Amino acid sequence: MKKIKKTLKITGIVIAAILVLLIVTPIAFQGKIGEMVKKEINESVNAEVDFDSFRISLIRNFPHVSLRINGLSVEGVDEFKGVKLADIGSIFVSVDVMSFIRGDTWEIRSIRIDNPDITVIVLEDGTANWDIMIPSEEIPEEEEEEEIEEDTEPAEFNLALRRFEIRNANIIYDDAPMSFFLDIKGFDHRLRGDFTADHATLSIPLTRAKSFTMRFEGIPLISSAVLDFTAEIDAVFSQQHFTFKQNKLAINDLLIGFNGWFAMPPGGDMEMDINFESKKTDINSFISLIPAIYAKDFESIQTSGNFGLDGYAKGIMKGEIVPSFALNILLEDGEFSYPDLPEAVTDIQLIANVVNQGNDVDMTEIDVAKFRFNMADNFADALFNLKTPISDPQFNFSLNCDINLDDIEKFYPLPEGESLIGKIIADILAGGKLSDIENERFERVKAQGKLELNGIEYKTADFDDIIELRQVSMDLSPQHFNLTTFDCQFGETHVLANGRVDNIFEYMFSDQLLSGAFDLRVNYLNINDFMVEPPEEPVEVEKPEETEPMELSIIEVPGNIDFSLNTRIDKLLFGNIEIDNIIGAVRVIDNQVRMDNLRMNLMDGSLTLNGSYGAKKYYNVADVDFSMAINRFDIQQTFNTFNTAQILAPVGKYCTGRFSAGMTMQSMLDEKLNPVLETLEGRGNLSTHSVVVDGPPPLQKTAERLKMEKLEKLEISDVNVSFSFKEGSIEFDPFEMEFGNSSAIVSGRTYFDQSIDYNIEFNIPREELGSTANEYMESLVSEVSAIGIDYELFENIIVNAKITGTFDEPEVSVDLSDRMKDAAGGIRDRVRDEVDDFVEDVEERVRDEVDRHKERAREEVEEVIDDTRERAREELERRADQVVSAAEREAERVRRESKRAADSVREEAREQAQRLIDEADGRIAKAAAERTGDRIIKEADERADRLEREGEERAQRIIDEAEKRAERIRAGEE
Fold it and tell me: Which of 252, 540, 805, 965 could form an S-S bond across to 811 if both were Cys, CB 3.0 to 4.6 Å?
């Protein structure tokens, strides 16, 4: 019994330990595992892969392992920088652990992808953003052959998937070489099946899209349709052969059924034999494909007429070889009407075929043999045929219509608040071969007719103003499409234009650039009218409410056009910016808007702009490359209008006046058209005109340190500044500014995070300087005056200021030492000059006196030679002693005054150091102040020691020189 209990106890402990490990291990290591996974993925792909979290659970679906990745994003690099291939909310994977242990088949029980946004792009040169795997090194031919032979052997294990699900996906596929575009929104999909068996039935119980749009060669084949697809497919995995069983495809009200098979056998070919046809023959199926009609009371529409759609695809697809295929659409005697409206759309006829006999895609022929309808006695009739679309497109096209828009309300219920009037007339005929157009054999090409829009007025509840197309006239010729008249009014905006479009057929049939040149004249253009979104529901308010500033967004620039605009806009309103007299050339090409000498007036000044703005589809950023000449912009208007000015030049908030500038700038723009400051590059020059700077924090702090209130508000004469953008900052080269009787040399930089690093060298009249500096200077003067030396101070004082911290909370240190050193040096020079003058004067007097005595001695030499010689000797000795005594007194005074000056320097330095410490705020600031104080004291002690040494040296020189002179006097030499 005890053994049983002991065994159960041990077993329980083991089970508990295992459970603890199952719970704790994923939690303890999933962070490291996530980082390892992220690192390995990024080393394997040409993309930037990131995710928010990576979780592993051994308990949630025990005995299966659950993996979850949240916030997965895959962003392109190089030419796809800024484009996200994938942005996925979460990925959930459930794996059967036992299948890994058994080893024969690795079974993934389920994969679920939630809220993915997928954008797949193929550029004109075939480069695709989905091709992100880094290619492995090439394998030698012999090894490759060996591996191929080995691959024919049965695999040691298989990978099985039980269930796959996608929830709420948004998918874009844009293939430029194929001119194919697909946009799917709100996509849900479920797939189930036993992928471990060679022969199984795959079930697709759900494939649904809230919005499905498909375009080919720019032609919208399906637009914003609701898609629903279910199917069961018989699969033979060893042959990759799939046969349609029960299936249903619904596009709005159009129901299509498929039968046949599709296979991808080893070797890379794709084989198929598929037939499809519409399951409903009433006209509702066709009408439902028209988005406006399908969305507007579709169930209540009364219809009649016959509709049919069928087609097939049969054969092999490999490389440029295509299977034979066909699509046939027939609509006869169609009619529909809304029960509450008096008129109907009648005589709807459509015969359209797309057919290819196989092998060569150039054998495709598109033929719309008939397309016409009548709307309340307004008719439209069109034909279209296209052959050899690849080698040399041969086309025929005609359009004839006369539509009075006033009659639309008779057969179609416009939304409340909308109205539409005016007239559309078209009579166009075109036909020929593209090669004849490209080789300018225009006599072989038919291209004639016109399109006119007259008196069109459109009113919608979304806008207060009516959109008026007063007159639009276009003529067609083989060479170009002439826009002879364009006259449009929207609110206060009035647009006049004319010009022409060239190579329209080359654009339509061979993907060449669509080029054109226009003259554009606008009296007033309010961009805000086109950018502000209306409220979802009307709200009654007694008075206008304050609104948030309008947010801009990236504006895509087409890449397949080359339009030149000779532009003149009298007034333009963009956000809160008013721009007048815009004149210049604008060119739209290569996903860029290029401006050539575009001149305009704004900010009470003028601007000349050269450069480009570029933005591509799907990219979240744009780029600009501008050179600008700004003339006399108002500083306050500029600062309050442009957010970038507030970041680059925060001092503008405190300035009034004007400035001019010439600059170059290159930068990326974010999704709100703000510069991405880390990418900002360029340089320029700025000049000001009569600027007043009133109270910016750095000047306020400097004024406090120098006790000069005058610095808080400066009237600055014109200055010129050179600057550059670098390393996340705007850097200023040293420049000089004058204010009153003072001046300053300024240099430094403002970082984009608003931290600053300025150096300012002030040159300030002494009488305007604060008391601290003046008291020090006056003490030096009083000391030298005490020894009988007159000295006048410098009229101007140099003050060095270092300003760091942030613009709003600056830290200021000032340094007077350089100018003080100059003053002390001047006093030393004056003392030296005074002593030298004194010695020279003594020498001169002694020399004169000796000369006089010599003269008298010579006159009396014969009479009193002995007596005179003795008296002369005594006199020389006495005078020699006098010279020595005078020199000793002078030397002692020099020593005393030098020591007094040295002691004064030491005392002032210690007081200055103590003031720095007392004024410092915070531990770090005090430590810095103590270091600065120590340096000031050390330098002062050195200067004082030098003063004492120099005084002692001068005193000794005075005594030595006097002794030498005394000896010469005694010897009768002087």
Answer: 805
Torsion, Cα 807 810 816 819, to 10 degrees, reads: -10
Rounded Cα distance between 420 and 565, Å, is 30
Place of tokens 């030492």: 817
Please give the C-alpha separations between residue 81 and each of 71, 78, 176, in angstroms, as whole numbers.
19, 5, 18
For the four alpha carbons of 340, 342, 347 and 350, in that order, the dihedral sign comes to negative
Q: Do residues 443 and 462 touch, judged by C-beta distance below 8 A?
A: no
DSSP code for 299: G
Give the per-residue pLDDT at 565.
92
Q: What is the pLDDT of residues 467-522, one digit of tens each?
A: 899 999 999 988 888 999 999 998 888 899 999 998 888 888 877 888 999 999 99
Alpha carbon distances (Å) from 894 to 19, 121, 486, 645, 956: 95, 90, 97, 61, 10
Whether the model clears a pTM of 0.70, i.e. scores above it, the answer is no
Cα 209 to Cα 216: distance, rounded to the nearest angstrom: 19
Query: In 10 A of CB 547, how many CB atoms?
Result: 7
| Contacts (Cβ under 8 Å, ≥6 apart) of 730 | 648, 649, 723, 724, 749, 750, 752
Poorest-pLDDT segment among 541-550, 792-801, 834-843: 541-550
Mean pLDDT to the nearest integer, 304-316? 93
Sign, Cα dihedral of 404, 408, 410, 415: negative
Q: Which one, of 433, 409, 412, 429, lies nearest residue 421 by Cα?
A: 409
- What's the burial of 142, exposed, middle or buried (CB within 10 Å: 0-12/13-18/19+)? exposed
Q: What secondary structure does DSSP assign to 823-883, as a single string?
A: HHHHHHHHHHHHHHHHHHHHHHHHHHHHHHHHHHHHHTHHHHHHHHHHHHHHHHHHHHHHH
CA dist list (Å): 607 to 350, 610, 626: 56, 10, 12
Task: Give the Å distances, CA to CA, from 957 to 409, 553, 748, 839.
Answer: 117, 83, 49, 11
User: Could you say which DSSP state residue 133 is in?
Assistant: B
Contact residues for 121 (Cβ-Cβ < 8 A; gap 6+): 80, 83, 128, 129, 174, 176, 618
Asked if 569 and 590 count as a contact pair (C-beta separation under 8 A), the reply is: no
Say if CB 494 and CB 488 are below 8 A apart.
Answer: yes
Q: Where would I find the beta strands (DSSP E) of 603-654?
A: 605-614, 622-634
pLDDT digits (tens, 9 = 90+) for 8-35: 444 444 444 444 444 444 444 455 555 7
3-state secondary structure of 142: helix
| Cα dihedral sign, 529-530-533-534 | positive
* Cα–Cα nearest to 962, from 839, 824, 826, 860: 839
915's enclosing H/E stretch is: helix 861-919
> 3-class DSSP state for residue 306?
strand
Question: 910: pLDDT confidence band, cut at 50, 70 and 90?
Answer: confident
Q: Which residue has the higher pLDDT, 79 or 98?
A: 79
SS3 943: helix
Q: Helical H runs in 682-758? A: 697-706
Decide if pLDDT at 856 tops 80: no
- Give which of 464, 451, 458 is closest to 424, Cα–Cα: 451
> Residues, the chain, total?
974
CA distances from 881 to 33, 253, 875, 887 (A): 100, 134, 10, 10
Residue 578: DSSP 8-state: E
- Nearest one of 510, 481, 509, 504 to 386, comparing CA atoms: 509
- As a whole number, mean pLDDT of residues 241-264 equals 90
SS3 710: helix
Residues ≥6 apart with Cβ < 8 Å to 155: none
Phi, psi (degrees; rounded to nearest 5) at 44: -105, -5
